[in-house]
Design a protein that fits this description.
3-stranded antiparallel β-sheet, Arc Repressor Mutant, subunit A, single chain, about 140 residues, elongated, 2 domains, mainly alpha
Length: about 140
């Protein structure tokens, strides 16, 4: 099958299965792509994604662009990474840095209150998590 025939078939599939709008259809495919990338545990090739989503290259590019935009605009802490014909979800750098800072802070506070006079409750973790929540709520 030629590329033009593939695109025609994709367009026919879109029209047959199309929700209220073409944009909604591509948004639903972006959600499906996110699910596939999330559960795969490894980068997926464009060919694998194309086959799994049953779309052509041009539509896959649009789907991935929509997904990347959603992840960025919703500040969900993950990003879409495309490299050498593969696609994967990765943790955003800021999330990783804040997670590392939180771990260090929990360790420091736990070490400070470790004297045992507060019992077995993880007070350091509680204090750091509550303060982190407060800081994030202020931004």
């Amino acid at each position: 099958m030629t590329q033009a025939q593939d695109e025609t078939q994709d367009t026919q599939n879109i029209q047959d299965n199309q929700p209220a709008s073409e944009q909604e259809f591509f948004t639903q495919l972006a959600m499906a792509a996110e699910s596939l990338l999330f559960v795969s545990g490894r980068p997926l090739t464009y060919i694998e994604l194309r086959k799994l989503l049953d779309v052509h290259d041009t539509h896959l590019t649009r789907i991935l662009d929509i997904l990347a935009g959603q992840l960025e605009s919703q500040h969900r802490g993950i990003r879409l990474q495309r490299l050498e014909g593969q696609v994967q979800l990765v943790t955003a750098v800021l999330v990783a840095l804040c997670g590392g800072a939180g771990a260090i802070a929990r360790f420091a506070v736990d070490a400070t209150v470790e004297g045992g006079w507060l019992g077995e409750f993880p007070w350091g973790t509680l204090v750091v998590n509550l303060s982190g929540t407060f800081v994030l709520g202020q931004s």
